[in-house]
Amino acid sequence: MLTGKQKRFLRAEAHHLNPIFQVGKDGVNDNMIKQIDDALEKRELIKVSVLQNCLEDKEVVAEAISEGTGAEVAQIIGNIIVLYKESKENKTIQLP
């Protein structure tokens, strides 16, 4: 689990990032979870956008992605989910 201080740090780091995945009306599927997991391994910190036509609630989407990838949800703001997962090979973010 991330502490409040670590979440604040990650939110600041993610501020300038653009969402690289979009969850639409089909919701979250296994293929998307695999792609998000690969992206997290490369970048550690990513944003996922939940589109207006998504039938699931953004909290449900965040939980599904988090459980599928083992990532931490650093923030849900509007329709954007910020995810963090420590990389095994490409570690660049030093948490406070």
UniProtKB/TrEMBL annotation:
Q: Where is the CRM domain?
A: 1-96
Any one GO MF term held by the record is: RNA binding
InterPro entries registered for this protein in UniProt: RNA-binding_CRM, RNA-binding_domain, RNA-binding_YhbY, YhbY-like_sf
UniProt keyword list? RNA-binding
The highest taxon in the source lineage is: Bacteria
Stated name of the protein: Ribosome assembly RNA-binding protein YhbY
- Organism of this sequence: Radiobacillus deserti
Q: What lineage is this protein's organism placed in?
A: Bacteria, Bacillati, Bacillota, Bacilli, Bacillales
